[in-house]
Write a structure and sequence with these properties.
The structure is a single chain. The protein is α+β, with helices and mostly antiparallel strands. 18% of the residues lie in helices and 33% in strands. The longest helix has 18 residues, at 169-186.
Length: 451
């Protein structure tokens, strides 16, 4: 196998614009080597600056280490460096000649499950690390479950520290078989297992000379070639309106455009569209892209749509093809991860933000809480605390056009916000999860609802 990452000159703007973008997240238990893997990726792919490497070398030498501690490239918080663990999500941006990358290095400790949810929520791929000496442990199963809940299309099992088990093929094979069986049961669509040593650099960027029994790709080679299979351009077309453009100038006296980033799908001039939640319809008269008229636009382009009819449309409305409009509802059932320190309780009054629309809402019921250790359901817990994942029923003050998260990760997601101080409370995914509970009868008194 030949390396795909020989040292090259910095990529030009034209080269970067021609490459695709892959968002990926790393996850794993404490001390499995996530930050070292990320540092190795950046170092061996020539994606770090000289002064960054010199700073790491100085800190490493001060600790008495003979070689640079590459984990320091991502563990940026003082507490992380002191404790040798990852606490916050560290984002890194790098590129090769074949692809651009946005990397989220997420914490491994159970108390930071919410941080992994944040980092993996927009990921196309998740790299789950396992210490070859320990195999698949409870935290590994948690990370696989979170990846399945968030519908991450691709999962890489990186069996790390193979140098500490004498690069034994049987050790790798047993771990890969156990993890693949578990993740497949959760519904993870694609799993790729790679034996590595992040510390030594085996199979991270360069193929390993110590594991000639392995004929698959290195981690970077897989990242460069994995298809971005969730092609949003072929999903249900959705445009959350962010801003209404009304110049009212002599040059454009009657211009009325509805601007926003296309969340999914494709829009065409002449297409019949519906405005939600009002339900009014019209046709696309024109599409402006960066000031230039076009006949078609697709995700993730930011565009301005002009309609044939003057309709009352404002920020928060959703433009969709009339033939493919989602239903609107005030009753939301979803799987959520609670991220705030204060608990979420039944009766909690919140703001629900979906796309560009924010409405008042109330938590009607919490039917169950998911135990990630064994995927069991604890019925009617009454509340969710930080890092809890559970099912909720929410009543909104206004109808919302919601897609199922399984159909669209963009328009099937929402967050709950504390109306008092604007704190993000909960991240939600509309519809059923891989461990959806059976419908639970709601015995609560319905009296007192004021919307």
């Amino acid at each position: 196998m030949t390396s795909t990452t020989e040292p090259t000159e910095p990529l030009s703007v034209e080269q970067l614009s021609a490459t695709t973008l892959l968002r990926f997240a790393t996850a794993g238990s404490v001390d499995d080597g996530k930050s070292t893997l990320v540092g190795r990726l950046l170092h061996d792919s020539k994606s770090i600056l000289t002064d960054q490497l010199e700073a790491v070398e100085r800190v490493s030498a001060g600790r008495g280490q003979d070689t640079p501690d590459l984990a320091l490239l991502t563990d940026g918080l003082r507490a992380e460096r002191e404790q040798g663990i990852t606490i916050d999500v560290a984002y890194r941006y790098f590129a090769t000649a074949r692809r651009r990358f946005i990397l989220a290095d997420t914490p491994g400790h159970v108390q930071y499950t919410r941080n992994m949810v944040t980092g993996a929520s927009t990921a196309d791929l998740a790299v789950v690390l396992v210490d070859a000496r320990n195999g698949v442990i409870e935290q590994t199963r948690r990370h696989a479950a979170v990846a399945a809940l968030l519908r991450v299309p691709h999962v890489v099992l990186a069996v790390n520290k193979m140098d500490l088990v004498a690069y034994e093929e049987t050790v790798f094979a047993a771990i890969a078989e156990e993890f693949t069986a578990y993740a497949s049961e959760l519904g993870v669509p694609e799993i790729t297992a790679i034996p590595i040593s992040a510390l030594a650099g085996d199979n991270v960027v360069e193929p390993s000379a110590n594991m000639d029994w392995y004929g698959g790709p290195t981690v970077l080679e897989h990242l460069e070639t994995v298809p971005v299979s969730h092609d949003l351009a072929h999903c249900h077309a959705r445009l959350p309106v962010q801003y209404v453009i009304r110049p009212q100038t002599a040059e454009h006296p009657d211009y009325r455009g509805y601007a926003g980033q296309i969340a999914a799908g494709t829009f065409h001039v002449g297409e019949s569209v519906t405005v939600l939640p009002s339900g009014r319809t019209s046709k696309v008269a024109a599409i402006d892209l960066l000031g230039t008229p076009v006949n078609v636009a697709w995700t993730p382009q930011s565009v301005t749509l002009l309609l044939e009819d003057d309709i009352d449309i404002s920020r928060g409305d959703l433009l969709v093809p009339s033939k493919d409009a989602p239903p609107t509802t005030q009753d939301v059932e979803a799987t959520v991860c609670h991220v705030a320190d204060a608990p979420l309780t039944v009766g909690h009054r919140v703001l629900l933000k979906h796309g560009t629309r924010t409405v008042k809402a109330i938590v009607k019921d919490i039917p169950s809480r998911l135990t990630l250790d064994d995927l069991s359901l604890h019925p009617h817990p009454g509340r969710l605390v930080a890092n809890d994942i559970g099912r909720v029923k929410i009543r909104t003050a206004e109808p919302l056009p919601l897609d199922a998260y399984a159909d669209s990760r963009r328009t099937g997601a929402f967050i709950l916000i504390d109306p008092a101080d604007g704190t993000t409370l909960t991240a939600g995914m509309v519809g059923e999860s891989f461990a959806a509970p059976q419908p639970v009868a709601n015995d609560a008194d319905e009296d007192g609802w004021d919307f």
